[in-house]
Write a structure and sequence with these properties.
The chain is an all-beta fold and 286 residues long. It contains no helices and 26 strands. The strands form seven sheets. A four-stranded antiparallel sheet has the order 1-26-25-24, with no helix packed on it. A four-stranded antiparallel sheet has the order 2-3-4-5, with no helix packed on it. A four-stranded antiparallel sheet has the order 6-7-8-9, with no helix packed on it.
């Protein structure tokens, strides 16, 4: 899959926030504020044209982030899912369901119904991952066990009808339909990616899926036709180094990538603007 020239040449990828601690996941507010985290639980906040500020420390190594309409961030770590308020207050939201403790929480996403989904990767090679769902009153249940091959990044389609889930050891991406009752049904594999370790996903406004990979150092673009193209690739790892998750600055074509293997964020321009993400109210209280 890397025998084609990338759509975005390496010299069009810029590096910002040098010195941050091996960021794996990120989310960006509607007015361009980036939330991301570090290996020691650091939570960074800032803008692309400025420097990050560490506003909190949460237990565990940070993974994926998602935001609600009130400006709170929700971050998966290896110990659970935590809410971080804009003033830095940290509270544990979920660590699995009563009958299934989470093994390795990885990435959260909101449905428009205010249900918080998050993936649990499980153990590499064991096919024991799952997806949990947390209701606004704080009840956690298992939403799916069929996408189980190291369940990783997830995202919701622009129309809210589909949830995409990365299965890193498949390797590839699966999709679910969201049923009227909010359950995840009709799993199907929409991308098979042999020889890669896919990690994170994001939709553009044209319904195409950006897929960031821990290996190789690349971001792929899944067309609506099913064709998989190389969007960005850096074989020398100067501008992309294990790009595990990507996010759009809302309303723009600007893509920001986390780099698990390095101490910076990567920025480049895409062909299309990003798709808006559900950011509902989540009236959960600790």
């Amino acid at each position: 899959m890397l025998d084609q020239d990338p759509i975005v040449p390496t010299d069009r990828i810029t590096v910002v926030w040098q010195g941050i601690d091996h960021v794996e996941g990120l989310a960006i507010t509607n007015d361009g504020v980036i939330w991301c985290g570090g290996e020691l639980g650091q939570v960074y906040v800032g803008r692309l044209d400025g420097e990050p500020e560490e506003i909190a420390r949460i237990p565990g190594r940070t993974g994926g982030f998602v935001l609600d309409t009130a400006g709170n961030a929700y971050c998966c770590t290896d110990l659970g899912v935590y809410r971080i308020t804009p003033d830095g207050q940290v509270d544990l939201v979920s660590a699995g369901s009563p009958d299934r403790p989470a093994v390795l929480p990885n990435h959260p996403a909101f449905l428009s119904s205010s249900v918080l989904l998050y993936t649990d990767s499980g153990n590499w090679g064991a096919n024991d991952g799952c997806t949990f769902a947390v209701t606004p009153d704080g009840v956690t249940r298992v939403a799916d066990t069929s996408a189980a091959a190291f369940t990783n990044g997830n995202t919701v389609s622009p129309d809210g009808s589909t949830v995409c889930v990365v299965e890193s050891s498949l390797p590839g991406v699966s999709a679910f339909s969201v049923a009227p009752d909010g359950s995840l049904v009709d799993r199907r594999v929409i991308a098979e990616m042999p020889g890669t370790v896919p990690d994170g996903v994001a939709y553009d406004a044209d319904g195409r899926l950006l897929i960031a990979c821990w290996a190789p150092d690349a971001v792929f673009l899944l067309e609506t036709s099913g064709e998989l193209r190389v969007l960005a690739h850096d074989p020398l790892r100067f501008a992309l180094h294990e790009p595990t998750n990507v996010a759009f600055v809302p309303g723009t074509r600007t893509v920001v990538s986390a780099n698990y293997g390095e101490r910076y964020l990567s920025v480049f321009e895409h062909e299309s603007i990003g798709a808006p993400l559900p950011r509902p109210e989540f009236p959960w209280r600790p």
